[in-house]
Amino acid sequence: MNLKISLTLTILAAGLSFAQQKTEKLKFNQELATSLGADKYGMKPYTIVILTTGTAKIEDKTKMGELMKGHMNNIGKLADEGKIVVAGPFLEKNKENYRGMFIFNTKSKEEAEQWVKTDPAVQAGVFSYEIFPWYGSAALPLYLKHHSEVTKEEL
User: Fold this and answer.
1) 155 lies in a domain?
2) Could you list the residue range(s) of the whole structural domain that residue 28 is in?
3) Which UniProt keywords are listed (predicted)?
4) CA angle at residue 96 from 54 to 118, to 5 degrees?
5) Where are the alpha helices (DSSP H) in the chain?
6) Which position among 29, 88, 92, 129 has the lowest Cβ density within 10 Å, counted as fewest Cβ atoms?
């Protein structure tokens, strides 16, 4: 058999094998979908809170350190309670003064606002916020259970 034909058949067989494996992994799981609140598209509503630079100017580094520690502890508490599914800072300064974001596991802007107001840095005016409804994968909260497996050191 000619090398070109042999190579083509090998590539085709590998591609078909990959496609079959991928198809086998994509079986619908009704129990999981229901437990996550998924609609027929595997999606659900969330609320995004964008943290912005607040009006408070805190020069005392000790006080600011305490507020940031409280901020991080509050994020952990809300995550443990299943209220936050994503949280993190923006890595670049921007003209909108966006500092970070939360994706809350609620479609209620009012509930998300109650939760963000538990943040000591928000309470102190270090951060302000904007709230937006958002539609995303219902499986989004599942990544949190694996986060500790990839975390070597806490912030």
Assistant:
1) no
2) 3-35
3) Signal
4) 35
5) 3-25, 30-36, 61-80, 109-116, 120-123, 144-150
6) 92
Residues 94-133 pLDDT 10s: 888 999 999 999 999 999 999 999 999 999 999 999 999 9
The SS3 call for residue 80 is: helix
Q: How many independent structural domains does the chain possess? A: 2
2-48 per-position pLDDT tens digit: 545 554 455 555 555 555 555 556 689 999 999 999 999 999 999 99
- Beta bridge partners of residue 101, listed in sequence order: 50, 88
Q: How far apart are CA 120 and CA 117, in angstroms?
A: 8
Task: Specify the pTM.
Answer: 0.77
Q: Which two tokens stand for residue 60?
A: 């005392």
Strand ordering across the sheet containing 43-53 = 84-89, 98-104, 43-53, 127-137
